[in-house]
Design goal:
Elements lengths: L2 H22 L1 H16 L1 H16 L6
Length: about 60
């Protein structure tokens, strides 16, 4: 299987797991809704986290 196929399969499995948890445990759905609502207010925190990950993995890396 190609790397893109593995990535797509992993994303699909994660989505299916999330939907299954929401059906089995309705409180998970409430948590996901709350998290989605809070992202609107805490987008800057996500941006800082993404910048930190980018800095940690890509700055200083040798380019061959």
């Amino acid at each position: 299987m190609s790397p893109a196929g593995k990535r797509n399969l992993t994303l699909l499995a994660g989505f299916v797991l999330l939907v299954a948890l929401c059906v089995i445990f309705p409180r998970v759905l409430a948590f996901v809704e709350l998290a989605a609502r809070e992202i609107r207010y805490l987008w800057w925190l996500i941006a800082i986290l993404a910048l930190g990950v980018w800095l940690a993995f890509f700055v200083g890396k040798k380019r061959d």
